[in-house]
């Protein structure tokens, strides 16, 4: 199954003199079960695009099919709650959305809201917190006492506790220090690889995208300009130039190595994988 | 000559745990100093203390020998500007022109003189043709440039950038960093930047490393990054070249080169000799 946008447009302040078309006739298929990155300049429509995935925004024109739901422009929807349970959206700077008295209550809020009995909601919250690596002695503290990176993980736990099939993360690593960013990346990779969640990430971090995202969508001025394999995109100098993207450092390094005579596969997408390939050749 | 001097500076938000603890260092006039550290290391607290946004609880901060304190604040504010992280939270005017004018109005600059000043600084940040734009029609990088123009119009001696590029896209980051390098290039402005951006740190004159509220290192950036293992211990990133060195070290291949080209060459020679 796929998530498909069909001739979808979104216009902010429709019918107003300052109406602004943020998405322009989007035709796009996103695969389930993989990690997809959505990249593009600020203002290219990335957040607008992903806010359709759980019907925070509804198409002005066209439609979106996601799981068993169909969002059609100008049609009333009756499945908002089940859709929002199945598609969890983690906003940019989600740490600002924590509001409950304790960490545990904050994470249990989602499952309670979706109708799980109190006991099960708490169990789900505990499991989710464990998964994102928040230690048990923080469960009863106020979420506001945690560090920025921890707060963000609590916000993500709140989504995971609802057991969504698709998790959408809008710039999950922005503003985190390098260690926090790496932990965040490891977290959503394991959500995909171990728990089979479909992950969709909006990001500006091309290095991270290159390291872990299977497919990449490039948006520009509200239109799709690329959708396909992440490695193909970042290994194509013409495309990098056309879309004004920075070459990931690992690609630059691999190109230097290839110029010297090394024969290296494109699949070596992280430094660990690349060094393994090289070490194999050096020791032969 | 040192322009800013910190002596045993300490601060606690809750009276128990210290966010900043016993920090002493000085910053030279006209220099570009970066401050790095993990989330929660005390970077932003330190910036707020220097800018007088938080009261100094322990020790002292002096700017040109004037202590940063409540009674000196009007004088300090005249000499210092601060650019924050979120471009959306610091736009005050309804257009770029109004936004730059805001500070000037507060200083009671004659409106006849204002136009020329606004033009001068809009040009300096490359936004001359955007003066009548509203904030929602600007990119993040452009909004930050407006904030910088507003600060420059006040003719400050010191500008503090508190993770000013962290919310921007790669293009916006590049724009703002270029502007910061240009500002720091002259002798008139002392730049202090709190950042996670290693590329930026490498461009600065001095780097202050904080860890758990304490001063961990204060040195030239190349010297700081030469201690990659120490930095990693305190959860900081190291330049890509050091990451490569480490990764190959784990595979028992020792690399000495200082750039990518050199490392590729070294690895190829290594392969040919084996």
SS field, number of helical segments of chain A: 11
Instruction: Quickly name the level 1 CATH class of the largest domain in chain B.
Output: Alpha Beta
Tally of helical runs of chain B: 11
Q: Which percent range describes the beta-strand content of chain A?
A: 15-25%
Instruction: Please report the total strand number of chain A as a whole number.
Output: 10
List unreliable stretches of 5+ residues of chain A: none
Structural class of chain A: alpha/beta
What's the Cα radius of gyration of chain A?
A: 20 Å
Q: Could you say which overall geometry of chain B the principal axes of the C-alpha atoms support? A: globular
In terms of per-residue confidence, which ranges of chain B show pLDDT below 50 for 5 or more consecutive residues? Answer: none
Calculate the mean pLDDT score of chain B and round it: 89
Instruction: Please indicate the percent range of residues of chain B in DSSP E strands (runs of 2 or more).
Output: 15-25%
The averaged pLDDT of chain A comes out at 92
| CATH architecture grouping of the domain at 1-78 and 201-246 in chain A | 3-Layer(aba) Sandwich
Order of helices and strands of chain B: EEEHEEHEHHHEHEHEEHHHH
Biggest pleated sheet of chain B: 6 strands, mixed
CATH architecture of the largest domain in chain B: 3-Layer(aba) Sandwich
Rg result of chain B: 21 Å
Helix content of chain B: 40-55%
Helix content of chain A: 25-40%
Task: State the main characteristics.
heterodimer, A: 284 residues, alpha/beta, Rossmann fold, six-stranded mixed beta sheet, four-stranded antiparallel beta sheet, B: 274 residues, 11 helices
